[in-house]
Amino acid sequence: MNYSIDTASLVLSKQPFLISLNDYKSSDDFKVIVNSLQPKVKLSENGYFYFINSSFVRDRVSDWKIHISSIEGEAEDVLKKVASYCIYNDIGFKFLKDKRLLRLLNSKVWGRSSSGKFITVYPDGVEDFKRVIEELYQLLVGHRGPYILSDKRYKNSNILYYRYGNINGKGKIQHDGRKVYHILKPNGEVEDDIVGPYYYLPEGIEEPFPDPESGPVTLNWTVSLRSYTLGSNIKTEEKTYDQTSKKIVFKGIQRTISTALYVRKTSC
Description:
Blueprint: H1 3-12, H2 31-37, E1 43-46, E2 49-52, H3 54-58, E3 62-68, H4 75-89, E4 92-96, H5 99-105, E5 119-122, H6 126-139, E6 152-153, E7 160-166, E8 171-173, E9 179-184, E10 190-192, E11 223-230, E12 235-242, E13 247-253
Antiparallel strand pairs: 1-2, 2-4, 3-5, 3-7, 4-5, 6-7, 8-9, 9-10, 11-12, 12-13
């Protein structure tokens, strides 16, 4: 576990010590919404997510997947729309168990590479992925959510993102306790699934929505990076200097990431 996950574990724990997030006892905030859409739908769970059509997902090692974020005030509406669409079209997906987990996922204590991932949708192959993400785009216009740093944003959506990565949840535990997942490339090669606070496209995987080509860009000044400060999931800072040694500071802020988080008092 990294620092962010340790902090999250302590926030969720009913004891003055860390717990595994897999042991968290959730409420039925979001489960009841999905059950109301299809009472006979089969839910499976793993950690702090509920899965639908999980057996379909486990049949593949890696593929394109769609991540959907949401602010807490719109989460129920977003889940209702996405779940209705996926159940009707028989598409595998998963969603966070309750609002407290979503509040935590959208807070500054959560890891930057996984922050904001409220719902994950698993289309079947690249052509299905292109169709599904466009239909979800039309369905979710106007909703707001955190930017998912590990993914690429779809068009101008505020909540719809995608990346190529592992989908069957199988990986190997490393010597430092981290679990590393794998992807299977079209040529049969297996490599680690790299998930960081930036969009990464594995070699040999074709970008489904290439950016429009543009001409060369000429800068009339240059900068050199001197320091990089990772404050939290909400803010990063880069300090650079131009050719005249003038300091320039670049800052990035997530407006939909919460800075406040209630932590129950405990005596140690």
